[in-house]
Amino acid sequence: MTALISFVGAGPGAADLLTLRATDRLQQADVVVWAASLVSEDVLAHCRADAIVHDSKTMTLPEVLAVFTAHPTARIVRLHSGDPTVFSTIGEQIRWCEEHGRDYEIVPGVSSVAAAAAAAGCELTSPGVSQSVVLTRLARRTAASMPARERIATFAAAAPTMALFLSAAHPRELQEALLEPGSAYRADTPAVIVVRASWPDERVARTTVGQLASSLATLGATTTTMVLVGDAVQGATERTSHVYDPSFTHRFRTGIADG
C-alpha cells in the first residue's frame, strides 16, 4: 500500500469488534494516531513493533495535522472510536487532506449505537413501532455546532427511536428536552442506558423517559454512555416484518395467499 491516511473506526470498545479491514490497516501502518481515552489499548496489538504511535487524547487538531505533515510518505492510521463518520471530527481532517493533496480513505467501524442496541437486546427499527432512527446529542459546550432546527424537542415530535450521544452528563436537561410540549414521547416511553457498550465493564439499565434523569444519576456515568429512547427499545412485539410474511411477494419469492 502506498502513502495513505486511513481514518479507521475502532468500534465501540471490544477489541474483537475491529473489522478485518481495520486490522489490515493497523498491521500496515507506519504511524498510528489513536484516542486512548476511548479506544482499547488491545487494538494496538495489531500494530507493527516499529510503528510510531501517538496518543491523541490531549492533542489539538493542529497537533494531529502536524503528525500528518511530518510523515508525507507514510501509511498513517487515524484511529477513531466507534464509526469515524459519526461525531468524530474527520470532516476537518479530510479537508486538510484535500487541501494538501494527501490520499485518504475512511474505514467504517461498528458504531456505539449498534453496540448499545446489541447490549439492550433490541431492534431499533420495529415493524409498526418505529422505522426511523435519529442519532443526535444534547447541545451544551458545543452548542455552536448544533443547528437550531435540530433540537431534541424537534425530533421528539415524531417519536422515532433516538440514540443520544454525549448527553449523560446533563440528565435533567436531557429528560426535559425529551418531554417538552409537543413531544410524542411519554413519561412511560421506554429508554435504555448503556455505559461502555461492549467493554468488559459494560452496564445496561432499563428505564423510562420520565425516570431518565434519576436513572442516570443513580448510575453516575457521564461519559461513554449511550441513551436509547423510543417504544422500539422495549423489545420484540407480536407484529412481524412483511419481508418474511408468507403472503408477501418480492422479487425473490411469490407470496402464498391466505386460505
Question: Can you tell me about this structure?
Answer:
Helix content is 23%, strand content 20%. The protein is globular and about 60 Å long. It has a five-stranded parallel beta sheet, with helices on both faces. A five-stranded mixed beta sheet has the order 6-7-10-8-9, sandwiched between helices. It is an alpha/beta fold. The mean pLDDT is 91. Helix 6 packs antiparallel against helix 7 (212-219).
Q: Distance between the terminal alpha carbons, to the nearest Å?
A: 60 Å
Low-confidence stretches: none
| Main sheet: strands, sense, barrel | 5 strands, parallel
Given the structure, what is the number of helices? 7
- Secondary-structure element series: EHEEHEHEHEHEHEEHE
Keywords:
259 residues, 7 helices, 5-stranded mixed beta sheet, 5-stranded parallel beta sheet, alpha/beta
Helices and strands in order:
Elements: E1 4-9, H1 20-28, E2 31-34, E3 52-55, H2 61-70, E4 75-80, H3 90-99, E5 104-107, H4 112-120, E6 133-137, H5 152-156, E7 161-165, H6 171-178, E8 190-195, E9 203-208, H7 212-219, E10 225-229
Parallel strand pairs: 1-4, 1-5, 2-3, 2-4, 6-7
Antiparallel strand pairs: 7-10, 8-9, 8-10
